[in-house]
Amino acid sequence: MRHLLRLHTFLQPYIPQMLLALCLLLVMTGLSLVVPGIIQQVIDVGLLQGEVGFMFRSALLILGIGLLRAALTYFQRYATEWVAQRVGYDLRNRLYNHIQQLSFTYHDHSQTGQLISRCIEDVRAIERFAGTGLIDLVRITLLLAGITALLFNANPRLAAIALLPTIPLIIIAADYGRRIGGYFLNIDRALGDLSTRLQENVTGVQVVRAFAREPYEIERFAYTNRILFQGRLKVLGEWAKIMPSTQILVTAGTILILWFGGQMVLEGTLTIGALVAFNSYVAMLGTPAQELTWLVNAAGEAVAGAQRAFEVLDTPPDIQSPPQAVQLPALLGQVDFEQVSFQYSGEKASALQDIDLHVEPNQVVALIGPTGSGKTSLVNLIPRFYDTSRGVLRVDGYDVRTVDLVSLRRQVGIVLQTSLLFSASVRENIAYGRPEASLEEVVAAARAAQAHEFILELPQGYETVVGERGITLSGGQRQRVAIARALLMNPRILILDDSTSSVDTQTERLIQRALDHLMEGRTTFVIAHRLSTVRRADLILVLDQGRIVERGTHQSLLAQNGLYREIYELQLRDQESFYEEMEALHARQSLPVRDQGGLE
Amino acid sequence: MAVINPPSAEEAMMKGYDPAVARRLAGFARPYTGKLLLALLLMLTGSAMTVIGPYLVKLALDAGLEAGSLPVLRQAVLLYVAATAVQALTIFFRVRIMARVGQSIIFDLRARLFEHIQKLSLSFFSRYSVGRLITRVINDVGVLREFIVWAILAIARDLFTLVGILVAMLALNVRLSLLTFAVLPVMLGVTILFKRQARENYRAVRSAISWVNSVLAENINGVRVVQAFSRQEHNYIHYRDEVNRNNLDTNLRAARIAALYPSVIEFLGTLATALVVWLGGAAVLGEQITPGILVAFVLYVERFFEPIRDLSRRYDSFQSTMAGGERIFSLLDTPVEVQDAPGAPDLPAIRGEVTFEHVSFHYSDDPALVLSDIHLHVQAGQTVALVGETGAGKSTFVKLVSRFHDPSQGRILIDGQDLCRVTQSSLRRQMGIVLQDPFLFNGTVAENIHFGRLEASDAEVEAAARAVGAHDFIVRLRNGYATSVEEGGLLLSVGQRQLISFARALLADPRILILDEATSSVDTQTERIIQQALARLLKGRTSFVIAHRLSTVVNADRILVIQGGQVVEQGTHAELLAQGGVYYELYKTGFDESG
Q: Helix H segments across B222-290?
């Protein structure tokens, strides 16, 4: 119920419209009571007078009321739907914006399928209830109160007897309402799990097929499917109990009246006419009582939806600009790590420990180290995707936690290994960080990223839509678009991963050239996989288990005979074997030896 | 990001009633015919009790009170209690039966869909996005659920009531009945007109919400890029003012029409009442009918339109059910391209000899050959490296070996057995595939390795992890082997994911191994571990490697140079270099920079 009450924050702006819809509904209900009155007049007066004109006038009156009712119905329905849609619209906006503000930490631990189903299914449940549900709830409450008043007015003693069954009715309905939310929550979760299952199965389809694990996957899906099945059955089982209970309790009113009222009639304390009239009022309770249980159901669904929606909305975005954030000026690009340690939430081991680092503007820093040694964690701290657990990270001397996030991230460019593009034109993808960029600027960035040529060959050039709803670019093409995207931001600090997975050698060369372009004149942090990058770096950091174990230039590190040397040897051996082979080949076939400068 | 307004053809596809779809939906209900009939019987019994109730009240009043008989009163009341109890019981059992039937049908349907998805060819998944599949399996099936659980019996009840009232009206007075029915053609015309418009609107509403969903899904999937480029505000404005706004406007437009319909029907109902009052009243005056008949008639006219209104509401849900059903069946009807031949035997334990006999391949929707006339023989235990430019056909080549596609021409034999004639599962169980992008499932690290061979013991899992050098980093994870890998393995590095996928393949212990190398995405140290792991993995198995590493190529027993879908050169590294052809060129420009 707590969650249902919180929904009022979404309804508040639309209270006038809701009141309007309610008023219209009440007027309509009132009008529907008029028609039987007219018909009664026709029978009692019209037929006695024997005048056809009276019939005609009555018919016209009925028609007129019908017309009025039709008009009111229209406006009432539209107003109700309008409120529902507005509430859904607002809620979807809030969720969307909130989710995209939530930090990396949140998204590391959340499942896409669940989040999406919250924004779709849960909002829909709330929307449904917010419109018709609430208005009906008010109407039915008023109706029940009205009938009750009428009954007590007619005969207090009989009224008390007739309304006795409504006490258990209310208790049952309230109890049902309390429990039903939980059941719907289980259903919602099961639905979310089911979509996650499916999503994962489809994303990993190649692995599933490769290991012939279809039966296993089918079994896992069936398991979740069964949980959903049981969840639904549970709700419907409750429903199977509540529906006849309502019926029984309403009928019980009539039965009690007949039993006790009948005896009163026989005793002569009540007339038959009064009894009949009384009973017809009690019968009026039937429909609203049934509707009430439906509404409790819908409310249960809405509560479950609201609870899940609020779970998201209540999660504070833990990385935000502070209240009096400093707008960063144009950066020089100096980066300092001061005793920085970092731990992912829920992890026991530190991802980074005691990192002390001073990087001058325009320096190129290469990070190397084993898988999982903390390279990615280190660079993720610079644009403040995560906050340090201890220590301070400064950019041009500003603590990143004190500055405006946008002003920071606008000046930090990132090119990751897997280049995610959005369903939009190539041009919009390149201009992702600067939507206002001109076409000339976009083209210039694409040229520098060696992407211009292939973009021109696409069906609509720069306006070609890529991604899910458009054409699929190859890994290498995506990567170059991502490089152009970063270039266009003209960042002062650049973070990149110089790996070029899954591309052929020609493309790899193009990407290398594009990356070289990108690194010019910026402070650059490279997660390095290439000797050429490492050699050229001003500073090489060798990471191991979250610590910087060695640092220096290529030459100084080689001299240290440590981990770097070990890594270098591994790579050098490959290259030297290549030279030997080429030279042997040259000797055998007199082929020209390649220009050695090309290797640097 | 404003350009794509995506009413995809399939979302929009909507006809009215389609008998074929209805028949197939009914097919899913067939196993439950008995239960459905029982539910119907219960409903009729319940309705009968509802009708008896007022009669018993009348009995209590007339025979009990008017006659002043307490026993008769008590008897009538007790009968009423009994009738109510029977009615309540019928409701209880009816809802339970329908719940079980409806949910079972839905369960079956979802399971069928999922099983079908498991069989579809890989190229299907590049056309059909995850989001759309989820919509099919979750939302469209959900629409069917509503219909089956609630609507079917309600429609039966409405029709039953309608017929009952119709009979009663005709029995009372034919002329007045016909007068009332005069409204019906108008109502029918209005309904047809409205429904046509409503269908358009429904289509628009669906495509609006599907746009909302896809934009939402994309933003959640790409949230890291969104934040990296500080696009939150821009994206929010786009979503609020265009995508979501479009959804709101479309819904409100639809609501304007939708709200009009019931008010028109309402009005037509009143029109009928007015006609009866006027002409029926006149008839009473003309002494053609009694006042009692007129009163009864007015009551019936009101009740007559209630089931009609309800049916028109049900028609909406019926229509969305049809649309959902159509989309579901079109997915179920997507042909399975690679199928086990009827009565196909299992492939017995193999040695791993692979033969291509003049194999050509093109995709079913594109006649251009991706591979043409591949003819070769690979001995058991050989390592074959495939090199060539992107798009040359290397991936297609290995996909044919693992029978993700069937050759368009020619045959592929393993140990002399035609791949198309044995069961896929027996083939793939003896074959290991390591993909370039190592995919991990939600679950623990151990479970992910286990995926290679479900019945393996924990000790075997650990042994496999040790063998590929993954053990060391796994034990350093939060919960060691029990650490759960979050969606897509985001908390592990690419190298770590690769090692886990190696362990997975090693555990499966395949006779034939297919490996799509992904060299450049790991650091040099991991590279060394991976090199060693690879050597262990390839040892003693027939393997096809899409190679990016010099060392892999050099160490291969045989190198196939693929260009334009053909094997243009083959031989060992030394032989091919000496030829000075395509391989030599590739080697000169390509392998010099690789790690």
A: 223-228, 232-238, 244-275, 281-285
Q: For testing the chain A interface, which of B47, B91, B205 should be mutated: the one with the most A CBs within 10 Å?
A: B91
Helix axes A272-283, A214-256, angle to 10 degrees: 160
The domain containing residue B47 runs over which residues? 19-119
CA distance B99 to chain A (A): 6
pLDDT exceeds cutoff 90 at A58: no
Whether the domain at A328-411+516-600 and the domain at A416-490 fall into the same CATH topology: yes
Half-sphere exposure of A63 (CA within 13 A, CB side): 13
Contact check, Cβ <8 Å, B266/A67? no
| Residues in contact with A75: Cβ distance below 8 Å, sequence separation at least 6, in sequence order | A24, B259
> Of the candidates B57, B145, B285, which has its C-beta nearest A279's C-beta?
B57
What is the rounded distance in angstroms from the CA atom of residue B553 to the CA atom of residue B168?
89
Nearest-by-Cβ selection for A570 from B131, B429, B524: B524
pLDDT in tens, B115-169: 888 888 777 876 777 777 877 888 788 878 878 777 777 888 888 888 888 888 8
Name chain A contacts of B523, Cβ cutoff 8 Å.
Answer: 368-371, 373, 375, 527-529, 567
* Inside any domain, residue B27: yes
Does the complex come out with an ipTM higher than 0.90? no
Cβ <8 Å between A258 and B496? no
Under DSSP, is residue A285 helix (H, G, I), strand (E, B) or coil? coil
Facing residues of A551 across strands?
A: A541
Point out the residue among B212, B234, B452 whose CB comes nearest to the CB of A211: B452
Architecture of domain A328-411+516-600: 3-Layer(aba) Sandwich (3.40)
Residue B349 gets the label, from left (phi > 0), alpha (psi -120 to 50) or beta, of: beta
Give me the number of domains chain B comprises: 3
Residue B546: phi, psi to the nearest 5?
A: -80, 105
Predicted confidence (pLDDT) per residue in A416-443, tens digit:
766 778 878 999 999 988 888 999 999 9
Residue B65: alpha-carbon gap to chain centroid? 63
Let me know whether B316 and B167 are in one domain. Answer: yes
B108 and B46 both lie in a single domain: yes
Laid out side by side, the sheet with A539-544 consists of A412-415, A493-497, A523-527, A364-368, A539-544, A547-552
Domain boundaries, chain A: 153-313, 328-411+516-600, 416-490
Separation of CA B325 from chain center = 11
Q: For residue B476, give the chain A residue with the closest CA.
A: A349
Q: B319: Cβ–Cβ under 8 A, 6 or more apart, which residues?
A: B14, B16, B17, B195, B198, B199, B202
- Tokens (6 digits) for B112: 């069928």
Q: Are A278 and A155 in contact (CB under 8 A)?
A: yes
B413 within domain boundaries: no
Q: What CATH number was assigned to the domain covering residues A153-313?
A: 1.20.1560.10
Q: Do B115 and B154 have their domain in common?
A: no
Of B234, B248, B588, the CB nearest to A435: B234
Closest CB from B117, B226, B248 relative to A100: B226
Q: Which two tokens stand for residue A471?
A: 């054409």
Domain assignment present for B190 = yes
Q: Does domain A416-490 have CATH number 1.10.10.10?
A: no
The reply to whether B448 and B498 lie within a common domain is yes
Task: Please indicate whether, in this complex, the C-beta atoms of A574 and B595 are within 8 angstroms of each other.
Answer: yes
Å between B23 CA and nearest CA of chain A: 24
Cα–Cα nearest to A496, from A478, A483, A481: A483
- Contact assignment for A369 to B523 by CB distance below 8 Å: yes
Residue B86 and residue B166 share a domain = no
Confidence tier at A479 by pLDDT (50, 70, 90):
confident
- B435/A349 touch (CB, cutoff 8 Å), yes or no: no
**8 Å CB contact of B593 and A67:** no
User: Is B260 in Cβ contact with A74 (below 8 Å)?
Assistant: yes
